[in-house]
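Now for a concrete sample entry.
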Amino acid sequence: MKHQITLKEIAKELGISVSTVSKSLKDYTEISTDTRQKVKAFAKLYNYTPNNIALSLKNRRSNVIGVVLPDVVHHFFSSVIKGIEDIAISRGYTIIISISDECLEKEANSIRKLSHGTVDGYILSLSEETLHHNDYSHLEEVNELELPIVMFDRINHTIDCDKVIIDDKSVAYHCVNHLIKNGHQKIGFLTTEDYLSVGKLRTDGYYQALTDNHIKIDESLVLKIHTQSNYYTEIEKLVKTHAFDALVTVNEAFAATGIKVLHDYGIKTPEKVSVISLSDGIISRHMIPSITAVNQNGFLMGQKSATLLINRIEGKATDSFQTEIIPTNIIFRDSVLSKE
């Protein structure tokens, strides 16, 4: 008996993406005729068939939403959960929360286990490993089952689904621009590795603000920190070797650690170095000094994500997928020295 090949295996053998395989089997005209024929022939040869059991289970409504998150420690993600639950309850749904711990395997296993009739759809923010390895085969499998997905915050544009984000580039641009307008010229930037789309976009906003204000970009002031590394040690290297009058960070954990390092080296915030975090939370509010931060409106993001998903589940959504951009605002606190 021939082995029943999977979408991921077909993609690997033919040297194309899982998305291309899936679309070829569904006769999407955006895929060339030659590619579609090649995929169909290969699938037939190796006995590929859709998971009909899972498809039949999918047609039985459970009124349960699967929510898959990188973690729940950050205030932002807990706010998103509250927003999702607010809409879900009001529309007769319950939620199941699964934590990927930034792990691709955990994320994929959670989604696959919930796909067999347990949930009607998913709301998720991609794990660090998923983005790093650029592996979305588990999400293509969900699309194959025609289970709706809504991605938020950390997303991938190649997956056909609704998405909810903030304008990360613009957020960083406005924060850096505010510092420049208030006399800061040497601005350090603490960000993540480029494979995390949020960090990459915020870094682009930082560069753009400097360029628009005719400030020469100094790459040595940009520190890309792995989220699993020792923040203190990484930031300490920057503080010991460079002078700067402001620091912008992609999240409040980096901001709080940066203020701690500066304090330990006798550098006062904001008298010597102003600090802005591009995400807000409990740490930002209660740190001394309290941290000027961007309110990402996680609760609203959760509400919008749940609304999009439930509308898609219930057949009330438009045919085309949507990308919703949630408004943000800067909350000014004590960590920024301002002339205003």
The longest strand covers residues 64-69. DSSP finds 14 helices and twelve strands in the chain.
